[in-house]
Design a protein that fits this description.
Structural class: mainly alpha
Largest sheet: none
Number of helices: 6
Distance between the termini: 19 Å
Strand content: under 5%
Radius of gyration: 14 Å
Helix content: over 70%
């Protein structure tokens, strides 16, 4: 069964959500009084890693050695298990710049 159409749909959904978070701006993301954007962004990183590890065809992963797969998984593990220790500014960069670039790269394949 070809999983690629479903994977593409999930990637597109992740990208739309990342763009919505980024459009709210860094100040809103980093606001300590309102964690919803930070938690949503963290959740998208966890979801992306799950997709990459479990549903993205291995051939597609192998065709993109420039994507830091292990770093993404390490970030996912921190966010899933020790999110209070995460540097929110680093998570902001991942959510607003790095992850959208990677998703666009995969969608262009």
């Amino acid at each position: 069964m070809d999983r690629l159409p479903a994977v593409r749909d999930e990637l597109e959904h992740i990208l739309v959500s990342l763009d919505q978070i980024a459009n709210r701006g860094e100040a809103a993301f980093l606001d300590p009084e309102d964690e919803i954007l930070y938690l949503a962004g963290s959740h998208l990183i966890v979801n992306f890693d799950d997709l990459a590890q479990n549903r993205l065809p291995q051939e597609l992963r192998n065709s993109h050695p420039e994507i830091p797969w292990k770093r993404i998984t390490r970030t996912r593990n921190i966010l899933a298990h020790d999110y209070l220790a995460a540097d929110r500014e680093i998570v902001w960069v991942a959510v607003s710049k790095e992850l959208p670039e990677l998703v666009r790269l995969l969608l262009a394949t």
